[in-house]
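Listing 4. Sequential folding, example run.
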Amino acid sequence: MTRAQWQVLTTVSAGTALLLLDVTVVNVALPAIAGDLDADFAQVQWVIDAYALTLATTLLTAGVLADRLGRRRVFVWGLLAFVATSVVCALAPDATTLDLARGAQGIGAAAMFATSLPLLADAFGPERRGFALAVWGAVTGAALALGPVVGGLLVDGPGWRWVFWLNVPVGLLLVRATLRVVAESRDPRPRRPDLPGMVLFGAAAFALTLGLVRAHADGWGAPTVVGALLAAGALAVLFVLAERRHPDPMLPPALFRVPAFTGTLVVAFAQSLALYPLFLYLAIYLQDVLGHGPTGTGLRLLPLTLVLFAVAPLSGRLTGRLPLRVPLEAGLLLIALAQLLLRAVEPGSGWEVLLPGLVVGGLAIGVISPALAAALAAAMVAVLPPERAGLASGVTNTFRQLGIATGIAALGVLFSDRVAGAPDPATGVVDGLDAIFLAATVVALAGAALAWPLLRGLRVSAASA
């Protein structure tokens, strides 16, 4: 691999890591944010969900615009928007301002995320593309896992606002690096933006998340909850109908006729829903029940990250030697095992009881992340030319972020209900953790069962054929 290719890989991976770090970096900061801004649990949930939702719902449109306007250009625009909204987040005087700024920040992140894989696909030939995607996949998994550690150090140091201030110098450095080392690329036959599809898709996802977030406080039968969930269903139907009629749909129905692509989406959604939201609830347990500070909380979650760092390179090398169904399915099964091990938490347990589950969780991410990126490339080679890589990566990353947003909201209902019905807060948190660990186990196993027949015969070699 040439020096220029290493520079592109480093710059694009770093940009992607920065935006994904902001998915989980706020987890250990939420208690401090809630105290400083006098926010309730629903408001701090939106600090994560607003970002994940706008990231998910604008990814596909950002990919279309990048194919038309230039991928490097949109990547840089995304970085600049990310930096600007990070400043607003850092200066937010109240929870509403922070939630709105996080939503805007997600749009900048979407522009970066949608262009990352296409930029790599353009810089690397078929013989090196699998390796580059495996490295990118490992970095993205590590960024999500490393977030609580970084967040803890910042909250205990200069304060929670530096979770966002840190993005400013790093983002500006990446803008300079991108303009210097990344070549421009675009689709010679760009699609037209599907604005109706983006609006309907975003509205449906927002309504679903709103209904789930409000379910605990208002009750499942409350008009706000029922109305939001019914609206989500109706908007989803309208979205499907609109996609069938649009000449250039943002989510082409034809893609779902490719079994391997559908299986990859199932894995991406199940992994994100079953694992990444748990950082929030483990952070609450470690801080509010066991009394550890933000840094102590981040460090106690570090075993997951260390195992991930050790396993991901080995997994990336094995990705080309095995059917991709093997690491993807193994990753989901390991996630299920990690959840079962975490159910050992009881009132009075020390943090050490989390260690087996964290180690297995790190192993799961290390196995699945490199394979997920490679599976996407392999699944798409038969139906999309390389210049359309933005569409494929956008769809997969959309489902990953939807998994995180849905997981935060849905698991939050289980968690809040158990806390509210417990004789004391500590018991409630432990009971809530047990409930979400069990639910996440079911999600991971269901994802593995659904994806198994769809991923048959998928190999990295297909991507380079």
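-- end of first protein; second protein begins --
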Amino acid sequence: MQRFAQEFGTWSRLVGKAVLLAVVAGLVGDVGAGEQKQPSSAETKGPSDWTRFRGPLCDGKCPETGLLKTWPEGGPKLLWTMEGLGRGYSSVTIADGKLFTTGDLPDPKGGESQYILAFDLTSRKRLWATRIGPPHRDGGCRSTPTIDGDLAFVIGTEGDLVCVETATGKIRWQKNFPKDFGGRMMSVWKYSESPLVDGPKVVCTPGGPEATMVALNKNTGNLIWKCAVPPLGSRGADGAGYTSMVAADIAGVRQYITIIGRGAIGVAAQDGRFLWGYNRIANRVANIPTPIVRDSYVFVTTSYETGSALLRIVRDGKNFRAEEVWFNGPQEFENHHGGVVLVGDHLYGGSGRNRGVPVCLEFLTGKVVWRAEPVGNRSAAVLYADGHLIFRYEDGLVALIEATPEGFRLKGKFMAPVRNGPSWAHPVIHDGKLYLRSHDSLMCFDVKGP
């Protein structure tokens, strides 16, 4: 996940020390070649619902149109600001007239706890708050709730996977990654993943040696399968990464693709069999950005002097392997955190450790099409909507950049009025409104076009 808070501490002592994730092929048995995709309701919701971290498909792309093509001086109109979200870097999800997030807040015992929160989107009144686990002094909760119909799923920083009812916040079931699955993180910043809901399953990454990835029945929490990932290589560190996984159909097989401490992996959705791995993209500090999948290609990137790569996932009978199409070193492109988006045949994102340099890359070749000076300071969280990119920089500056390979075109910028520490929470656009969280505060801007 993110380079966590200057004022919260640990990260700044370690960020200069390391490197991120990595290439191995896996042999599998019968992986169910005839398996068909079973989309979750998170994938079939209309464009007005933003049901998961980085959107329903976890790709950082908003389908809304009719948005502002340029921003006025000072930025789009601020509609309102609300407080009460607590301490945390999680983003927001929006479904059925409710807004969901997580945060560390005072608890009835006089201390603090981590909560999943629901608010009425119109009145902004808090509907309920449900405790999910202990607080995290280094910046609070990271996981963004995943919404699937009448259920919400979230992971606390201590590995507490909790399923609650969206109407009331009542806990339906819960698991603990270290206790139930022998889970561990690759480094010190604790669990950050936002769960994937795929059909009847909720899938996540405890990072345990015998249960690196698990699939549970979303209604009961009962274990469906667990995957023990074999050794991928020497790069990186054992345990879960800070990535949120994506689902994809490749060569007739539904796969769950993520980056763990030792590199990128693909796991069969049907039975949890390890399909393939790639060690070269791993580092020992924090493997963070979400993979991007198109057809049989998987793009991965991590920072700490690592780089980026495009993989082609090849099936040979019952076996799968990851073939490296291209690899760029950190000088060409490495995304620290904040993510990358694929628009047409080009990738867009912020490059450099703690830099957020705007870069456009050709997807199939890795060629840098253009590179520009950073608009703001330090890393940037990226969102695509209606032909444009929103870069939200750590210092609070927000930029609108046209998503075109023809060149860097800045269409507006502004400094967010509320800046409670690093602005790492990913931006969200819903119903023509831009939502920016800054720890306890949430800002809402009007970005509808004329």
